[in-house]
Amino acid sequence: MTVATLQHVRDFARSKHAGQVRKHDGRPYIVHLDGVVSILTEHGHKGSDLIAAAFLHDTLEKSDTNIDALIEMFGPAVAELVFWLTDSEQGSREAQALQAAWRLARAPWDAKLIKLADIIDNGTAIVVHNPNFGPTFLEEKRLALKKMAEVEGSRLLRLPLFQRAATVTEAASC
User: How do residues 58-114 score in pLDDT, each as one tens digit?
Assistant: First the structure.
């Protein structure tokens, strides 16, 4: 994808999240998506499908977008990454967290990268703006990191992006 095409992806995501704000700080939702993309690029992860999926990673669960639209507009590779990142688990909060961790452990590598950036961006904001919910959120994300590391092993553990996500989740648990 070209820069112009990635701008189209961002514009699409912004329109789908129009009027939505981040629960924990009240800023427009696009701030979170930009944050995830920024974290990925800071760590050298700049593939066009990866960046497109990062902009779109919450569209299935937080907007009226469906998977067919993502496939048609952005292709099956981007849609698949968004699919792997979409929370659709059922049950208690604890059961949902465990199911999400299982799903993410088996997700493609690029989906894991996006999830790591998502954990960093959300974890940092939640700890600052919603300290009462922070411990619950971060415990769930530590479980996801653990399950991803069980599958990927040292490849993931050595990754600076993973180390940063782990630091975010651990620092706030003290």
Answer: 999 999 999 999 999 999 999 999 999 999 999 999 999 999 999 999 999 999 999
Residue 28 backbone phi and psi in degrees, to 5: -55, 145
Instruction: Please name which of 43, 48, 34, 42 lies closest in space to residue 4, comparing C-alpha atoms.
Output: 48
User: All domains of the chain, ordered by start, with CATH?
Assistant: 3-171 (1.10.3210.10)
Residue 174 pLDDT > 60, yes or no? no
Sequence-distant (≥ 6) Cβ neighbours of residue 144 within 8 angstroms:
97, 100, 101, 104, 105, 115, 119
Token reading at 2: 């070209």
pLDDT value, residue 23: 86
Q: Which residues pair with 21 in a beta bridge?
A: 28
* In the block, residue with structure tokens 């922070």: 134
